[in-house]
Amino acid sequence: MTGPATHGRGGREFAIDTVVVAATQLIVRLRGLVLLPLIVNLLGTAAYGVWAQVVAFASFVSALVSLNFHLPLVREIAADRSSAGVVYTSLLLATLAISGVVGGVLALLPGPIGVVLLDSGDAARFVQLGLLLMLVNNVRMLNTNLYRATDRLAIRSASELLSAVGEVVGILITLRRDGSVEDVLVFMVAWNGVIAGGQTIHGFAIAGWRTPRWSIVAAAVRYAVPLLPASFANFALDRIDRFVVGYYHGAEGVGIYAANYAIAGLVMMAQTPFQITLLPKVAALWDRDRDQAARYIEISMAVFLTLAIPFVVGVPLVAGVALTVLGNSTIAGEAGWTTLLIAGGVTCWGVAIIQAQVFYGARRTTAWGLLTISATGVNLVMNFAMVPWFGVAGAAAATLAAYGALAVATTVLARPILAVRFDLRHLATCVVAAVGMAGFLLLVPPDDGPSLLVVVVLAAALYLAILVAIRALVPAAGGRGPGDLTWLVRALRGRGQPR
After folding, report:
1. In angstroms, rounded to a whole number, what is the distance separating the alpha carbons of residues 160 and 292?
2. Could you tell me the CA-to-CA distances from 261 to 57, 159, 186 in Å, in that order?
3. In the chain, where are the structural domains located?
4. Following DSSP, what letter does each residue of 76-122 receive, concatenated?
5. For 157, how many CA atoms within 13 A lie in the half-sphere containing its CB?
6. pTM for the whole thing?
7. 4: which residues sit within 8 A by CB, 6+ positions away?
8. Could you read off the pLDDT of 480-499 as tens digits, one per residue?
9. Which burial class, exposed, middle or buried, applies to 64 when counting CB atoms under 10 A from its CB (0-12, 13-18, 19+)?
């Protein structure tokens, strides 16, 4: 069945939105690389580890306390725009109430949390700042997803860009004035609070104030609660390894691992735009044209892997120099294998997230929750087994194993609901081109910052050149429509959309 979204500019809009989000996410992700040398060079590796732990703690509590209300908000508003006012009002008030109550209770128990978080019972101020950061982040999460649900992705990107740039500038000023880690966290809470407040005012201007309904909150809970294990698992898969590293190797070990993860995790810049743009599109198409929804997922997967494969191959060859330039030789000491394993694992996570759109569209969120919590168990067990013996490399290996298992399981279990095809021939060309690029990096290794930039740009150009040459000999496999990236080019020109 073909619905209204099949005609018109749906594909072109999706492509343009994705490119806009990608450009913003590039800048947002670079925030971590900018903060790394600022904190390490001015406060030290251990201080960077403390900052990373507090931010991780805020993310962890946020993942649980938010109840994932942003997902039903996107799912329902994208499917029925007339419901925006009542859905937004109800879920925003519920988010404020739950976050405030839980945060207030946890603030009364700073000692035990500080022992787990920083191996110190004298960390009350850090715990309280982490909880405040959780509260404002939960409000920001809901607001940015209102933009996502109402096709205001340019505004969403602009607000994220303002938040990221303002945060970096503010932290720089704080550190230049001899500020401490605590001062940095105070600024982060204040700045993110300002952003959240401005977004809320704008959110009501977009959706309108409506009398909140308990039925809306109850329906959101039914949709999102099965994803609470997934939220915990998402955090655990991405962050719990830092706590294990900190337990065995202290704050400096966390700083080393977090810095390596900051470099290797940049591969998610290729996936995050699709994570943002896919759900509204899949939700809008699910009941009208499921084949077209599948095609959007397939194209997103093809583009993501086209960019991720050369990153995974190339990052271990340049990470040592990059981390030495951004941080110090201690942080860069184990960059090769560590960044390779992390980048491979995070790529598998990206594959799983794109496939998870099938579960979101079908409203089968319990399945995704069970998958991710199972992967968390694998990650946790392997971390405790490997970190004591292999340090940060052991944590990186655990990341690859857990994410790899999750990607395979998600692909297998999503297939009966909606079969998403992988263009294996195209992926093979990407691997061949990436190997050629790696050969260049081995022949011309960078040794400082300027040479790193030049070599990376040349390596990327070489990868694209090899890919184009091989594609001339190995055409894309058949599918529901134009193969590989052909659709993306056509869509950007306004000549077509996924079919």
Report:
1. 29
2. 16, 25, 24
3. 4-423+476-492
4. HHHH-GGGHHHHHHHHHHHHHHHHHHHHHHHHT-HHHHHHHHHS-S-
5. 20
6. 0.67
7. 288
8. 443 444 544 554 444 444 43
9. middle
